[in-house]
Amino acid sequence: MLTPTRAFEHEIEIRKSRFIACIEPVDSRRAAMVALAAIRERWPAATHYCWALLAGADSGAHDDGEPGGTAGRPILNVLQHKQLGNVLAVVVRYFGGVKLGAGGLVRAYSQAVSEALAHAELVECVVRVQQRFSCEHAQESRVRRACEAQGARIDAVDYAERPLLTVSLAQAALPALRERLDDLTQGRITWLEEMTEHQ
């Protein structure tokens, strides 16, 4: 999954209408709505502010007054096709007086976002998770070494009746870590909640 490194914009003109594609890195719907409000303030006289969002479990698309399915969904399709995440794409349109028709609008919004992404700097988005678990005191040092060997960073250790460890690692590596620690401790690990964060 790819994500933009910074906010980026690119403008095209189609039959006298201006289409300004704004690509923003975001990690939630809330952050996306803040970014959308700022874009509306930046171009207050625009006719439409059509957008699509992909951020973790948050996704969505909005046509903002364009005929249904001609703007938000095409923008979202481009983001999905390019395998993006943690991204908001907004296309600001200034109507130029020439109607494009439904097919023309789909092509215009898709083209605006595709061209913007062709110029934007994208990086691999690694989804990381924090995992908490407890183990027996006698096993703690071996568990720590195994975590480090699996690429997990130990963020915190709380000592109580049993040591409670919080580790972070790439989400894709979590199943292997769980399997390794369960094998190492003969199933004596108590797994607690998992928290997801995006990078």
UniProtKB/TrEMBL annotation:
Impact N-terminal domain location: 15-117
One term under GO cellular component: cytoplasm
PANTHER family registered for this protein in UniProt: IMPACT FAMILY MEMBER YIGZ, IMPACT-RELATED
GO molecular function: anion binding; guanyl ribonucleotide binding; ribonucleoside triphosphate phosphatase activity
Limits of the UPF0029 domain: 134-188
GO biological process, one term: regulation of translational initiation
Alphabetized InterPro entries for the sequence: EFG_III/V, Impact, Impact_N, Impact_N_sf, Ribosomal_Su5_D2-typ_SF, UPF0029_Impact_C, UPF0029_Impact_CS
The organism of origin for this protein: Plasticicumulans acidivorans
Protein name: Putative YigZ family protein
Family membership noted in the UniProt record: Belongs to the IMPACT family.
Pfam families documented for this protein: DUF1949, Impact_N
